[in-house]
Specification:
The structure holds two protein chains of two kinds. Chain A is α/β, with parallel strands linked by helices. Helix content of chain A is 43%, strand content 20%. Chain A is globular and about 55 Å long. Classes of the chains: A alpha/beta, B alpha+beta.
Chain lengths: 385, 598
């Protein structure tokens, strides 16, 4: 099976206006704290191994450094962590090692050092190339910072198997169709192997949500949001990308293996405060507290807490909510066997309605979302509850 | 007690005119309840009664009173439910009395409900003592109210007592008037026993407690008694009076009011208005006025959560133990699943039952729109009583449909006459009389189909008159009418719980109103939802709830699958309150839509 490792580095210089992940804002200090954090993560790994939950004979398939702003950490710090992983597990060049990379945090020299340390996939948080839209994100970089980073990556990865991905956010308040088309075309033109397009979500507790609730901003209307969804899919597909998940596009063979493992309901471990782990059927969380995490790990205690399972039906729907996102669909025979709950039977009428209304398609035991199903996936899941 | 020292009376008043407060003053004045035990609305023992300021069950209390003449008297105050739904019960409570205090608010004047009850009292030959209450209010107009009592009711108001139940003013004068003006009972102590049943309640330890007024003869522990209407015999375990708790005594003698316990298991065996006699020496004739009470308003009660069915069944059975006039039977709806068809004496009765079930038994209930009983004559000559629109036969098989009419009396200040007449006309009302009681109050008498009144008539009346209109009715007769069944189809599927019987002339309008209202109440789904109103196969109106188009979480942060668990759990809880019609999820409020259109 191999290990899929997520490492959460929560520190940011400044919080983005739309972000609701676990972050710790440390102006002027995020880099230093990130390096110190990676040392704690190495110690957490040792605690997991000592607990006997990770088979040392299995190789590492993926490492994903997410955040927060993990690219604030030094290349040396990241290298030391990867060395620590290598000391315990087989971590070959074939493993996918991703670093969420924020423009403005890595120059050519740092990229070279990261590549040398083993990072082979850079996920670039561009979000938008439009200065007017970038201004409302609270991000500390400019569009030109993004371009400089992409230019560097294009140059430095050309000779290797290393790759880079671009994250875009669509449907900003005030975004014109023309602005969106420019973002999409520029992202494709940078030669990334992977593009994620996330429609802006107004998460509770974010600055963006407060502005929305206060009536200061107005999101694009539904017609326009559907048009963006379709136009994006059509454009990127025509460019040779595969629309392999609701919000993700990849050139052949360039899907995010790490993320795909989530959608395939595979096991993974998450280290650092705010990270989650899954060792089927058990799920664990490291609570959102950097201080408590630090105390616990420093004292040699695992920080993880097991999350109780809900009832079998809710567990099944919760996992379907993950698995159906993938274009490959879900083998429902396998799924029913694995979760002890066959939604095709427990929600027979609903299931049939979804097929008849063309929101799901079925081919033998494999069930997939149609385009319409993708657009209304949250409602579809609620319908199956 | 010698009959000549007994005074049995009741208090007639409109809601909020001070009946319960006056009863409290009388109880205090005669000191039957100690200061320590005294509380407001002493006779209203249910929470619901105290909250709403209404009396649901009859209560009685024996008050020993020493009059100015130095003699001891026994007062029996019978507190009656005042609402139109309980007219029959009120009439039996009144029949147990020789007199009544007519309490009228000095500022508000005579109301429709007061009128109805005072006529009942006059019909039972009761001596009526007018009491003008709240005379201490700045807006009190005792002279104007006296005039109303004389003109509208036709009672001599010269002896009316001015009182304030709040301050206690007039209480003693009232007690003396009860002695002087209300005649003592005049039964025959040696004749065979005749005791009038005026109410009953169920006690889980002792069975049915029967409330009686002994008219002739007397009643003792150990007596073998017989219910005349059912011919059922029982042995008396205990007799007693009310203080207002049950107080055991040796005998209830001629003219007295009290209770009987006789190992009776079912409240249905004890019928209000029935006569109790002795099995060995039965009376030849029962007391007059017994009637079998039948429910007039019907509705479906369904558990919101289907798992609650057994709990609802238990609760309904328990409630039925205490309320013989409440009717139920199991019913199945394709839209709502398993539930009960329930019959009520009226709208208030329905509300009370629903509220008691929800409150005392902690249940969540869905009530379908109420219906009256339609009398359907089939082409084959069969007469059917239809209390559920779903059961209306195919129009091809119907020869005629008759619907119940009420005689409605509305009393209202003149400035509201216009809108109220419009309301009555829109409900197919026929105006019978209109006359001024004074320059400030008008009586409007209408004949209206009951089916037009049970939905929201009273609420509309209240809002059109800014709360000033009072309303009372009695069922009059059945009349032929051109009624049709209006169906609602959801995505082409008949939703039985939303069917209603309406007059053909109103069907189109009603269909449009209903579909429009439902469109507001049915949330957007993943597919278009067509809501149609139809008679037979003919579609009268259509609305579409457009499908949700885009609703998808863009970024599913893979590691944290539990991120949305709280939302899923909340959604799942919310779905328990939804009913599935075909593939459409319908919130329970939608089933009450029929009540909300206008």
């Amino acid at each position: 099976m191999g290990h899929f490792i997520y490492i959460h580095v929560p520190f940011c210089e400044q919080r983005c206006t739309y972000c609701d992940f676990y972050t710790v804002t440390s102006p002027g200090d995020a880099a230093r704290r990130a390096d110190a954090w990676l040392e704690l993560v190495a110690r957490e790994m040792a605690l997991w191994i000592a607990a006997g939950d990770l088979d040392p004979a299995e190789p590492v398939e993926t490492v994903f450094l997410g955040g927060g702003t993990p690219s604030r950490a030094s290349a040396a710090g990241i290298g030391r962590l990867l060395d620590a992983v290598r000391a315990e597990f087989a971590l070959s060049a074939l493993a996918e090692i991703t670093l969420e990379t924020q423009p403005g945090t890595a120059d050519a020299e740092k990229i070279a050092a990261l590549l040398a340390a083993g990072v082979n996939r850079f996920s670039v948080g561009v979000q938008t190339f439009q200065p007017a839209l970038l201004a409302q994100t609270g991000r500390l970089h400019s569009a030109d910072d993004s371009r400089r980073l992409l230019e560097t990556l294009q140059r430095q990865t050309a000779a290797s198997n290393a790759t880079y991905a671009i994250d875009l956010i669509s449907c900003w308040p005030g975004q014109t169709p023309d602005q969106w088309r420019k973002d999409l075309r520029e992202a494709a033109a940078w030669g990334a192997d992977h593009i994620s397009v996330y429609e802006l979500t107004y998460h509770a507790g974010t600055a963006m949500r407060r502005r929305l609730d206060a009536g200061e901003i107005e999101p694009p209307n539904e017609d326009w949001r559907i048009e963006i969804f379709d136009e994006t899919a059509n454009f990127l597909t025509a460019q040779g990308f595969e629309h392999y998940e609701i919000s993700n596009f990849a050139r052949p063979g360039r899907r995010s293996r790490h993320n795909e493992n989530y959608w395939r309901l595979g096991n993974y471990v998450g280290w650092g405060a705010g990270a989650h782990s899954f060792l089927f059927p058990r799920r664990f969380v490291n609570e959102n507290s950097a201080e408590a995490y630090q105390r616990s790990i420093a004292a040699g205690r695992l920080f993880r807490r097991e999350i109780p399972q809900p009832d079998p039906h809710l567990t099944a729907v919760e996992n379907l909510q993950m698995a159906l996102r993938l274009v490959d669909g879900v083998d429902m025979d396998w799924f029913a066997d694995r979760y002890g709950c066959d939604v095709r039977e427990t929600r027979a009428a609903q299931f049939r309605a979804l097929l008849e209304e063309g929101l799901l398609t079925q081919n033998g035991p494999v069930v997939r979302l149609s385009r319409a199903g993708r657009l209304r996936f949250d409602s579809l899941i609620e319908y199956l509850l | 007690m010698d009959q000549s020292r007994i005074r049995n009376f009741s208090i007639i008043a409109h809601i909020d005119h001070g009946k319960s407060t006056l009863a409290d003053r009388l109880i205090e004045h005669t000191q039957v309840v100690s200061q320590r035990e005294m509380r407001d609305q002493l006779l209203d023992s249910m929470d619901l009664e105290r909250e709403r300021g209404i009396t649901i069950k009859a209560q009685a209390v024996r008050l020993p009173y020493t009059a100015k003449d130095g003699q001891s008297y026994e007062f029996n105050l019978i507190d009656t439910p005042g609402h139109v739904d309980f007219t029959y019960e009120v009439s039996r409570s009144l029949a147990a009395c020789e007199g009544a205090l007519l309490v009228v608010d000095a500022a508000q004047g005579v109301e429709a409900q007061t009128l109805a009850n005072v006529y009942l009292a006059i019909g039972n030959n009761l001596e009526i003592i007018p009491v003008i209450n709240k005379v201490d209010l700045p807006s009190a107009d005792p002279e104007g109210v006296k005039e109303q009592i004389e003109q509208v009711i036709g009672l001599d108001a010269s002896g009316a007592i001015l009182a304030s139940a709040k301050t206690g003013l007039g209480t003693e004068e009232i007690c003396e008037a009860i002695v002087a003006r209300i005649p003592p009972p005049s039964g025959q102590p040696d004749a065979p026993l005749r005791a009038l049943i005026f109410d009953s309640k169920y006690d889980s330890y002792r069975g049915v407690v029967t409330y009686v007024r002994v008219v002739d003869g007397s009643l003792r522990k150990g007596d073998k008694i017989r219910m005349i209407s059912t011919q059922a015999d029982y042995e008396v375990d205990e007799v007693g009076y009310f203080n207002p708790k049950l107080c055991q005594t040796d005998a209830l003698t001629c003219g007295e009011v009290g209770y009987v316990i006789a190992s009776i298991k079912e409240i249905a065996s004890v019928r209000v208005g029935d006569t109790i006699t002795h099995a060995r020496r039965p009376a030849k004739e029962p007391l007059p006025g017994y009637k079998d009470v039948k429910p007039v308003v019907f509705a479906g009660l369904y558990p919101i959560n289907a798992d609650d069915y057994d709990n609802v069944k238990d609760a309904i059975e328990k409630l039925k133990l205490n309320d013989a006039s409440f009717f139920y039977e199991p019913e199945t709806s394709t839209a709502l699943g398993f539930g009960f068809r329930c019959g009520f004496l009226g709208l208030l009765h329905m509300e009370i039952i629903q509220e008691r079930l929800e409150r005392e038994y902690n249940l969540n209930l869905l009530t379908t729109a109420p219906s009256v009983i339609y009398r359907v004559t089939t082409r084959g000559g069969q007469v059917l009583e239809i209390d559920n629109p779903c059961k209306l036969p195919d129009p091809g098989h119907i020869d005629k449909i008759e619907e119940p009419y009420i005689e409605a009396r509305i009393i209202v200040p003149p400035q509201y006459i216009g809108p109220i007449m419009t309301l009555c006309q829109s409900r197919r009302g026929i105006q019978k009389h209109l006359h001024y009681i004074s320059d400030k109050r008008v009586i409007l008498d209408y004949e209206i189909p009951l089916g037009e009144v049970i939905l929201d008539f009273y609420d509309r009346l209240k809002s059109l008159s800014q709360g000033y209109a009072s309303f009372d009715y009695e069922i009059r007769d059945y009349r032929p009418a051109d009624m049709v069944k209006l169906d609602i189809l959801i995505n082409g599927e008949l939703c039985d719980a939303l069917s209603s019987i309406v007059h053909r002339d109103n069907a189109y309008h009603r269909g449009r109103q209903l579909t429009e209202k439902l469109k507001e109440l049915v949330p957007r789904q993943m597919f278009d939802v067509a809501i149609q109103a139809a008679i037979g196969g003919k579609i009268l109106a259509r609305e579409t709830v457009k499908a949700l188009r885009k609703n998808v979480t863009a970024k599913c942060y893979g590691g944290d699958i539990t991120r949305k668990r709280k939302l899923l759990e909340k959604q799942k809880e919310g779905k328990k309150r939804m009913k599935q019609v075909g593939r459409v999820e319908i919130p329970q409020e939608a089933f009450m839509a029929v009540l909300k259109v206008d």
